[in-house]
Design brief:
about 625 residues, alpha+beta, 9 helices, globular
Length: about 625
Amino acid sequence: LPQILKNCGIKYLVTQKIFWSYNGGDQFPYHYFTWQGMDGSEIVSYLPTSYTYTTNPKQLIDVWDNRVQKDSLDKFLLPYGYGDGGGGPSRDYIEFALREQNLEGCPKLEMTHPSKVFEDLEAEGGPENTYVGELYFACHRGVYTSQASVKKGNRKSELALREAEMWGSLAMQDGFVFPYAEWDADWKKVLLNQFHDILPGSSIAAVYKKAKELHDEVIASGTALANAAAGSIAGSGKEELAFNSLSWDRDAVVKKADGSYARVTIPACGYATVKDNGLAPEEAVHVSVTAEGAVLENSKVRAVLDANGEMTSFVLKESGREFAAGSMNRLLLYKDVPRVFDAWDIDSPYEQQFVESGRCTGIRLVEDNPYRCAVEISREIGNSTFTQIVSLESGAIRVEFDTTVQWHELHRLLKVSFPVDVTATEAVNEMQFGYVKRPTHRSRAYEKDRFEVCNHRYTALCDEGHGAAVLNDCKYGVSMLGNAINLTLLRAAASPEMAADNGAHHFTYAFTAWEGSLLDSPVVEQGYELNVPPMLASGQAGYRSFFSLDGAPNVVLDTVKPAEDQSGDLILRLYESKHADSGCTLRWDLPVDAAFTCNMLEAADSCQALAVEGNGVKLHFRPFEVKTLRLRLAK
């Protein structure tokens, strides 16, 4: 976040809930400090302790006396107002403030713009203290999971617009008319649903009915735009083409229009003709189902399910290593009654209030061909039922669990557990443009606070020689304890919506493993590939890669979009994903006249020219650095 803020021209950060720890926990040490983010970027920050202060003398005196940073700070920022629903200053608050400008026995009070606090403190020398790392909020851990539909809608909407942007901006080069107004409106719908109390799942039922409508509109609009653009790129013809928006060559199994499968290598940010050349015998997948469970196997992995539908073995064939340290894909149900805020919180005692694990009611074979095999597992837990399609594809190193749930619970928390044969004191939780490492133990207050955290597409446990990860397509809450990754699937809060989340849910998670270090692992690619399937279109046979990256597989081209100024320029967003200083070359198959770096707002005065060498530019990335490029194309 410091990097993003700085790159958008923001000088200061003010937030406050970091001081909320009403169930105890590690006290944050500063109000005024320099926050250093994971890439080394810094932003001057101020943390009050509330957002609804009054201005009566008792409040002022209490806030001043109870501040945590007493020795080096002589100013306190006090955002005041009536209520947290947008209520501003009341008449009494203003009158108190006027009388307290110089009142004996009370801190002196000045009504002014918040920037003046920073300017005055900078004149005194600026922050003495630097905080490095995550501003972890030791409350409201339930918001990573509550109202699962809005979490899924958010993820799928972001991805739909990502596809629309990439293929729409590339199709513009051949005359495709990009619908700027519709695109802008769609993003604003997504952003509206990211408002606090909507995306966190802490609103009333009517909000989520409207949020789903907006997400459905965005997904339909973005998908239609991506398909139309891909069709424009494909041209006229009846050949089936597979499109890959990811910045690496992708070996994928795709389902053709006639329902049959094919395995195709699709170039980075490009497309290829889908040809059914069949599979060599050693590349075929195999499955067997017995009363004891099932076995799914391809040339790279062998996975075993027991009669309860749990994965008791996952072996990488290249090394013969067993990664399961217990029953994986184990469903765990807990009592979940937060002390204060129902939809907002998960309290640590849930771990001592285990209810039951999942029960299997049947396993049957549903797909068995050389390209893809799958078994269906019927399961029950609590009052709820599950159907899981467990699948493995040719050439894949991940087993997928496509899950449909009929959820009928109250004050329950559902997790799926994957204990792995990896020793790690920290887990790797993916976040935007990188990852955060968080403890897998409960040794002191700092670690105990982090009993539930957020992740994006993956959470991994690894040492310097091997690792394993749980991937997901729409889940954000996760916990790690010892050698287990426990992905949070569903909650069942009773307030502010009674019986929240009850009903049907559909989501997919997956398990993968690797030999070697995290830097050399495929975990980032696997997370993306689970979330971004290839897209099919009909047109002329062909093979083309619009963009590719040479020299650093840890650098990801995440976004290709039209410039906001509608100039016809392309904006590219790239980032280093694994905390490794890296150099690479970005190459393109487009008529690029000039290339520039710019800030995240694409401001003209931030552009700095890059040296174009042939059909590309050389780039250098600090660990976790995000770069924004502007490409000017020949008209």
